[in-house]
Amino acid sequence: MAPKRGGGGGGGGGISIDSSCPGAFQSDNLLGTPIAYFVAYCFFFLVYLVLLVTMSRVRKRHPNARSIIGGLYGTAVFFMMIAFALLIIATMLRECGTTSYLTYYNWAIAWTIFFYLAYFILLLSFFWLVNDRLRTLSGEQPGFFKMVYGIVLGFIGIMTAALIGLRCYNYWTNTDGGFFEDPLISETNKLGMAYFVFYLLITLAAGGLAFVTIVSMRSKRINTGDLTGWIAALTFSMFIWVIFYIVEIGAALNNRALSVTFYEASEWITDFFQAASFTILIFIAKSRAFSPVADTTADYNNTTYPVTQQPAYAPVPQQQYAYSNAAYNNNMAYNNAQPQPQSQPQPAYYYQQQPYSNNTIPVNNQPYVVHPK
Questions:
Q1: Higher pLDDT, 43 or 224
Q2: Average pLDDT over residues 115-124
Q3: Does the domain at residues 35-288 carry the CATH identifier 1.20.1070?
Q4: Contacts of residue 246, Cβ cutoff 8 Å, sequence gap at least 6
Q5: CB of 101 closer than 8 Å to CB of 16
Q6: Which of 54, 73, 159, 367 is deepest in the core (most CB within 10 A)?
């Protein structure tokens, strides 16, 4: 059976497989890889490839998502994809007899480094990046939490480096270079148990801190969108795959061999919930709670409304009458003969411009820039 990513690796001899692929993935080959593992490697390699493409598209459409699924997140997803690619290549080479059993563990050293670095970045993204983003949104950024983030992540980072070193050392003892060295399987399993228990506690703490912050945001009437559901889903997903690793390591510490079916199911379950954890981070990052609220105040104040122009009226010309000269002279003579009454003063009429009115209120004495009433 192929060594699992969490295993310490045992000793072996310079055994090689015939250079042919017809016998690949046979159940009676104790040094072979069950087909269920290989299918999982191929499937989840494609999953992480899709995640890389999805991450790129989400970051373009939601610029604020970069605070959570930025360079660190992209590096972790890329590491997971590379690790599965190494597993696929190494498995095919061994099943086809192209490489020896001992050479296979050189590949195991490489994928172990990539997997555990990705695990650490996944935890960092949840515990630090998500919670820091939530506290920024809620308006709370106490320096105490930054110190806690640094201490906790620094400690788990040291444990990650130590566990990578021990697991790689055990794999190295199965290669030509370290074949005569004794592996530290018991020490590796003990450190692995402590590592994943601490990893699980940090995951639960990250989820708890996130929920407390969300409750605080709601009390301040800050939009939380769908964050509650996604935070719960992320906590659950990380809890599940870590628990399965703890069960496997616990069985190894007690010298108990679990069934082949359990290990095959565990491979799919842990891989699924790891991929789900990375996927949920994308949904958290693009949540509408992190979307900037458009400030429409300036646009509202500067809104211009169409003004109905009053029609311009031209003065009506007085009607002109034309008389002939004889009629005019007779008329003038008659008028001069009659006594003229005293003319009364006529009231003067002046045109007064009507005030501007369009059911609006002028702003800053500018009648064309208005607020609606």
A1: 43
A2: 96
A3: yes
A4: 193, 196, 197, 200
A5: yes
A6: 73
Share of residues in the chain with pLDDT > 70 (%): 69
- List pLDDT tens digits, range 160-176: 999 999 999 999 998 88
Q: Give the DSSP letter string of 191-255.
A: HHHHHHHHHHHHHHHHHHHHHHHHHHHHHTT---TTHHHHHHHHHHHHHHHHHHHHHHHHHHHTT
Q: What is the pTM of this model?
A: 0.72
Of 267, 231, 248, give the one whose Cα is nearest residue 193.
248
Distance between CA 354 and CA 245 in Å, rounded? 85
**Angle at the Cα of 346 (from 340 to 347), degrees rounded to 5?**
175
pLDDT bucket at 22, cuts 50 / 70 / 90: low
**Tokens 């930025």, residue?**
70
Q: Which two tokens stand for residue 330?
A: 């007779």
Residue corresponding to tokens 């660190």: 72
Per-residue tokens: 273: 């919930």
